[in-house]
């Protein structure tokens, strides 16, 4: 591919299997478009995730994802806790993702050839937004979970915070979320109370807030699946 004629997109997923799969799927969509011959996608992974997903061993080749033409892998050092032990200190893992990945990714962006024309970054990597802005590279933020969950996080501060269990609190918990967040008619406050106990909730708020400064927000759309199911 002739570098001057291609659009180089750098895809930066959050280092978790579901997030990486979502970014891979989006990369496949880009590279199956009518303009795929003009698109180059660089997927950024830690060295550990590169080894987990794309091992050179014969036994792993049968289960590893196939890379389409136009997709290449670039790695950064393992600056975050290992995938194998992260569950023991998930809060610490989140903190490392938020504070230690930005520098090696920045160094990588400055070395890439051809220079990036756009960045696709997971919403849970809020540092990617200012990183791209400093280089005047447009950034699209990918939220790989349900759009309803994004709306919930974006408006969670509107909800009354948990208090002691009283009759009044129980009555409030029975309220529909639509009173606080438009469109969420099928959920009640009691369905989301557990979110307030997450130690990483403030980090989630930071990610949602940062996504507002991106040039584009990409959300998962299941409506084609729902419509297909209804026709059966």
Automatic annotation (TrEMBL):
Organism: Ananas comosus (Pineapple)
Lineage: Eukaryota, Viridiplantae, Streptophyta, Embryophyta, Tracheophyta
Protein name: UDP-glycosyltransferase 87A2-like
Gene3D superfamilies recorded: Glycogen Phosphorylase B
Keywords in alphabetical order: Glycosyltransferase, Transferase
Family: Belongs to the UDP-glycosyltransferase family.
GO molecular function terms noted in the UniProt entry: quercetin 3-O-glucosyltransferase activity; quercetin 7-O-glucosyltransferase activity
Record gene name: LOC109719583
